[in-house]
From TrEMBL, chain A:
Species this protein is from: Streptomyces antnestii
Membrane topology: Multi-pass membrane protein
Gene3D superfamilies in the record: MetI-like
CDD domains named among the record's database cross-references: TM_PBP2 (cd06261)
InterPro entries: MetI-like (IPR000515), MetI-like_sf (IPR035906)
Ranges of compositional bias, category Basic and acidic residues: 1-11
Statement: the UniProt record of this protein carries the keyword Secreted: no
UniProt-recorded name of the protein: Carbohydrate ABC transporter permease
């Protein structure tokens, strides 16, 4: 996707045609100078949108740092805490086992990353490279599975989980999406885009399917694998509807379900809820800050897939 | 969309079977002798998961919709009873109305606003990567976090109302009025989706030939005119894609309304959406699995119909 190229191009501004953007004057894509008033207008609009998108997170952070004696309802509002304190984070840990919930979320997300990477790489390779009867049928199965809206089958997923005796367990939370059809098809496309000749040479040299997969194909699709990993982590960490349905024992809650419980029970304690939400969102924002490129790339690949 | 046929790249000299051992090949490693290399072994984990947790529940939903199954009671075949009951269930109609309204409210905003945003961040002016990333941040946050942040912002005593009061408009009960709440939830959905669709549009805009803009500018077309005569036609298929993705997602709305209106969708359930109704009816020890499945079937049929409708609209305009 060109998004990736775009992002990459900016990381190495010295490369090729991008160089002229480095010129002392601000120029547009044609090398023409952007007029000053237009530039000012752009930055004003950018800052306005920035306030709308990031502002709410900062307000939540600010609320979570305000002490019990500080008025959080004042009008005009006070944007910065008078005497910042971590007291609310202590309180939220005393109210619900928030660190246990965070650990549950981490377990679920990590398991989801491992199973999706391994499972979709294997299946994707089988769909793209191996020859056998029924391969088209297998591909069709994954395409159909991708098109089924999860919301329309959650009740049946829940009864299936009950039949397996896995409701109210973290394994039950992970299983339904542990090898997502869309990831299988993403990996399949990545393998299809590799030149066939290298693997053919390996085959002639006597490498079997496992060796070709592990030593030649897999190292060449690391980028797509990273996208699968990141979206599997984010999907599991952020998921709400399914864990809400499958988990009933508060000891096994994940963070999102725990937050919902906190909100339902202590809705009037805004500082407490604010501290809880910051705990839930901080890891992902850090992850995003470190691995932006793959987040953007994933949007492109996912959207094309539908 | 995916091309369903995989065999395009296969050269004529393709190996017959992967497990066949070429004669005279040098021994490569132990792995080769120990691991079986049946292709089905590669595909098996994925097929099993998808089969047990997606396709089987899907078939089971279709079957259950014609039974009176409950969580703890297997149930019997009741024909079309569930669907007949739906027709007379006020809550079902409320849910359908809210889900449709949600879609009608959210989709135009999500087709248009991210496009404008993409145009705003398209030019490589200093610091633009920071802005692009910042605008994407709501996408990575959990919908629960986002929902709770906005519940607090839109609270009777929250930030938005404090500002409204300070500028003399007075406080507004965003979360207490049935319609304002639905509207607020839509705004939250749009807020969270902006960055995602912005990235999709950015990719599309990068493919718009510069010459078109230049030619239009030479002909004296202003920025607004160029937007409608050059940009919009050039990214039209992307707009259709965004419309398809966002309408399907908006119709299935659950979390935003659940968090802002509460599990019951307001005091009398007046803000219930269809998926909320599915969740409320079908779960728990007394869940009416059969009836919830019937609602699920309706959700599925409408979702598929929406996708086909949008894609068909695309093709018609092309012709």
């Amino acid at each position: 996707m060109s998004v990736t190229e775009d992002v990459r191009a900016e990381e190495t501004p010295a490369a090729g045609p991008v160089r002229r953007r480095r010129a002392p004057r601000v120029t547009d894509d044609n090398g023409k100078r952007i007029r000053v008033w237009e530039l000012v207008l752009r930055y004003v609009l950018l800052l306005a949108v920035l306030a709308i998108t990031i502002g709410p997170f900062l307000w939540q952070l600010s609320t979570s740092l305000k002490g019990t004696h500080e008025d959080i309802f004042s009008s005009p509002p006070k944007f910065l805490p008078g005497s910042p304190t971590l007291h609310n984070y202590e309180r939220v840990a005393n109210t619900i086992p928030v660190w246990d919930y965070a650990f549950n979320s981490l377990k679920v997300a990590t398991a989801n990353v491992v199973t999706n990477c391994v499972g979709s790489a294997l299946a994707g390779y089988a769909l793209a490279r191996l020859r056998y009867r029924g391969r088209r049928t297998a591909t069709l199965v994954f395409i159909l599975a991708m098109l089924v809206p999860v919301e329309s089958i959650v009740i049946a997923q829940f009864t299936t989980m009950r039949e397996l005796g896995l409701n109210n367990t973290l394994i039950g939370v992970v299983l339904p999406a542990c090898i997502a059809a869309m990831n299988v098809l993403l990996m399949r496309n990545a393998f299809l885009n590799l030149p066939y000749e290298i693997e053919e040479a390996a085959f002639v040299d006597g490498a079997n399917a496992w060796q070709r997969f592990l030593r030649i194909a897999l190292p060449s699709v690391k980028g797509t694998l990273a996208v699968v990993a990141i979206f599997a982590f984010m999907g599991a960490w952020d998921d709400f509807l399914w864990p809400l349905i499958v988990l009933s024992d508060p000891a096994k809650f994940t963070l999102t379900i725990g937050l919902n419980y906190l909100h339902g029970t202590f809705a009037n304690d805004e500082r407490l809820v604010a501290a809880g939400t910051i705990i839930a969102v901080a890891p992902l924002i850090i992850l995003f800050a470190c691995l932006q490129r793959y987040f953007f790339r994933g949007v492109g690949e996912g959207a094309v897939k539908g | 969309m995916t091309s369903p046929l995989p065999s395009v790249k296969t050269p004529a000299t393709s190996p017959a079977t992967p497990s066949a051992k070429p004669p005279g090949a040098r021994p490569v490693s132990r792995v080769r002798r120990q691991l079986p290399t049946s292709p089905w072994l590669f595909a098996a984990p994925g097929l099993l998961v998808v089969g047990i947790f997606i396709l089987y529940p899907f078939v089971s939903t279709l079957v259950n919709a014609f039974t009176d199954r409950r969580t703890l009671i297997p149930g019997t075949f009741v024909g079309l009873d569930n669907f007949r009951e739906l027709l007379h269930d006020d809550m079902f109609w409320t849910g359908l109305r809210n889900s449709v309204l949600y879609m009608v409210g959210v989709v135009p905003a999500l087709v248009l606003l991210p496009l404008l945003l993409a145009l705003l961040v398209q030019k490589n002016i200093p610091g633009i990567t920071f802005f692009r990333s910042a605008f994407y941040t709501p996408v990575v946050a959990s919908i629960v976090v986002v929902g709770l942040i906005w519940v607090w912002l839109l609270d009777e005593r929250g930030l938005v109302n404090a500002v409204l009061e300070a500028v003399g408009i007075g406080r507004v009960g965003f979360l207490s009025d049935q319609w304002l709440l639905l509207l607020s939830a839509m705004a939250v959905t749009v807020w969270k989706g902006l960055g995602y669709y912005m990235i999709i549009y950015l990719a599309a805009l990068a493919n718009v030939p510069r010459e078109l803009h230049e030619a239009a500018a030479v002909d004296g077309a202003g920025a607004v005119r160029r937007f409608f005569t050059v940009t919009v036609p050039a990214v039209r298929s992307t707009m259709v894609l965004v419309a398809a993705l966002s309408s399907v997602a908006a119709f299935k709305v659950f979390s935003e309304v659940y968090l802002m209106a509460g599990p019951n969708g307001g005091p009398a359930g007046e803000d219930t959406t269809l998926v909320m109704l599915v969740q409320r009816t079908g779960t728990g020890l007394t869940g009416r699995v059969g009836y919830a499945s019937a609602i699920s079937v309706v959700v599925f049929v409408i979702t598929v119909a929406l996708m086909l409708l949008v894609l068909r609209a695309d093709r018609k305009e092309d012709a």
